[in-house]
Amino acid sequence: MTKSGERPKQRQRKGLWSPEEDQKLKSFILSHGHACWTTVPILSGLQRNGKSCRLRWINYLRPGLKRGTFSAEEEETILTLHSSLGNKWSRIAKYLPGRTDNEIKNYWHSYLKKRWLKSQPQHKTQRSDLLTESSSSLLSCGKRNPETETLDHVISFQKFAEKPSSSSPSQESNRNMITNNINNLPKLFFSEWISSTNPYIDYSSAFTDSKHINQSQDQIDEEELIMINNNYSSLEDVMLRTEFLQPDHHEYANYYSSGDFFINSNQNYF
DNA sequence: AAAGGTTGCAACCGCTGGTCT
DNA sequence: CAGACCAGCGGTTGCAACCTT
Predict the structure, then answer these.
(1) CA–C1' gap, A34 and C3, in angstroms
(2) Where in the cell is it found (predicted)?
């Protein structure tokens, strides 16, 4: 202990996580939860800071994460949501089960933005100055400034607006898809569901605090919904699709609050 | 085969807002 | 009410893998 009574600061590791560290963190959180992230490294014996542990869990270790390439549907969802929400990656992630905000952000910067630029040679006329002069900094994730930020939104908006309607299923066909295929849905394990991103339930708090479990639809940002519905009809498709993937969240929430969650998530994944 | 360039992604940093004391 | 603490978010960086010359 120091004079002030604090613990002497342990040298904290940085950089890539080793498999041993991953295992320590994973088993600690699965058996104890994470009431307070700053205590997690101390209690689990990791030489990392709490922030780093939190990030590693959310972006990599959390059960139910999808890995690998984004599907065409996911791409469309990102483009659609980005066009109305901007760089609100965590909000966008809420509609992409199993994807993290970090993953979506990286995907946008490394692929989607470029794909759009490639497919839009005609824009050289109107916005050639902006696109040619700042595209290099854009593509290299240049420093934040109002101009590039605005351009981000312009890019994603135009991309969405110019998409042929055939590639974006109508609300009608989407509903049909739901009714036709509801029985063919893959069943989610609860751990998958709780780890996937449900727009109606703040599962991250729920994980350690069961009082949040019964939060329901009113938790959605109403302004967000209004904006989405006013601007783009296919954004409703996004919402439907998301709900479609996670139809039984209330039932699962009750299941979680019953305390069986950890047992089953352990069985399913470890 | 090797050097240099590019890409993708994991992780860090700094800021913000909420909660607690 | 103010300050401390914490979680969450978005921007940025570092580096390994891959590609090109």
Answers:
(1) 25
(2) Nucleus
| pTM greater than the 0.70 cutoff | no
pLDDT tens digit sequence for A29-87: 888 887 788 888 888 888 888 888 988 898 888 888 887 788 888 888 888 888 778 88
Give me the residue spans of the domains in chain A: 19-61, 72-166, 171-269
Which residues have Cβ atoms closer than 7 angstroms to strand C?
Answer: A 15, 34, 36-38, 50-51, 54, 87-91, 101-102, 105-106, 109, 141-144, 149, 204-205
Spatial separation of the C-alpha atoms in residues A219 and A1, rounded to whole Å: 44
| The two structure tokens encoding residue A124 | 């050289």
CATH topology of domain A19-61: Arc Repressor Mutant, subunit A (1.10.10)
Q: What is the pLDDT of residue A5?
A: 28
CA to C1' distance (Å), from A219 to B6: 43
CB-contacts to strand B (7 A) = A 13-17, 48, 51-52, 55-56, 59-60, 102-103, 105-107, 110-111, 114, 139
Q: Does the pLDDT value for residue A214 go beyond 50?
A: no
Q: Is A94 exposed, middle or buried (0-12, 13-18, 19+ CB in 10 A)?
A: buried
Q: Which nucleotides of B are covered by protein (CB under 7 A)?
A: 7-14
Written as six digits, the tokens of A261 are 């969650």
